[in-house]
User: Which sequence fits this backbone?
């Protein structure tokens, strides 16, 4: 498979937060607000999410496009990118479909949910300036397709992603995570936003 120029390893931690949660003082810079809309794809049997894989087409933000996230280890996933116009409307890019064909086993990949997110992003830099993490405060509205009685789901979560490699970023992730927990956030009960919508672990 050909890799996209923005393919990378993603190391992040997720936290659940109440609607009135207040971000602690993280020595952060100016916040930036982004609006995202992502359509997630899976098989009728949700084979991808059962293997902790997510596939989406997202509009908005600096990295809009197709994203395929594959598990690597705890808190780390391989994230593959493709542009919005790769593949026909409503269909998954062929190279992403090929990447997961051993799991889908010929089943069609279809839209299973749409998630709209109001995201406030702040960047936290270590005192030594050798590491940085991005803190994304997400207010999410989601609809699951094919579930007539599912209704609209809303929740708030905080994502903390390492933006630089190495032990410094790991230490900063832990430091920011501790501050969030002390302020009342909780480690997320779901591995991904889609897992929450589909009721998967």
Assistant:
């Amino acid at each position: 498979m050909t890799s996209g120029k923005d393919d990378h390893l993603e190391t992040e931690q997720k936290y659940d937060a109440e609607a009135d949660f207040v971000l602690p003082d993280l020595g952060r810079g100016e916040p930036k607000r982004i609006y995202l809309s992502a359509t997630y794809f899976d098989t009728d049997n949700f084979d991808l999410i059962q293997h902790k894989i997510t596939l989406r087409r997202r509009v908005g933000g600096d990295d809009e496009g197709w994203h395929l996230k594959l598990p690597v280890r705890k808190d780390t996933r391989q994230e593959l990118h493709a542009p919005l116009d790769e593949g026909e409307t409503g269909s998954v890019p062929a190279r992403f479909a090929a990447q997961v064909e051993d799991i889908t086993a010929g089943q069609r990949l279809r839209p299973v949910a749409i998630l709209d997110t109001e995201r406030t992003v702040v960047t936290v830099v270590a005192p030594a300036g050798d590491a940085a993490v991005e803190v994304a405060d997400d207010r999410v509205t989601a609809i699951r397709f094919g579930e007539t009685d599912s209704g609209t789901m809303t929740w708030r979560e905080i994502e903390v992603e390492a933006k630089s490699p190495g032990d410094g970023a790991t230490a900063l992730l832990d430091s920011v995570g501790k501050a969030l927990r002390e302020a009342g956030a909780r480690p997320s009960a779901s591995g991904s936003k889609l897992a929450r919508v589909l009721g998967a672990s």
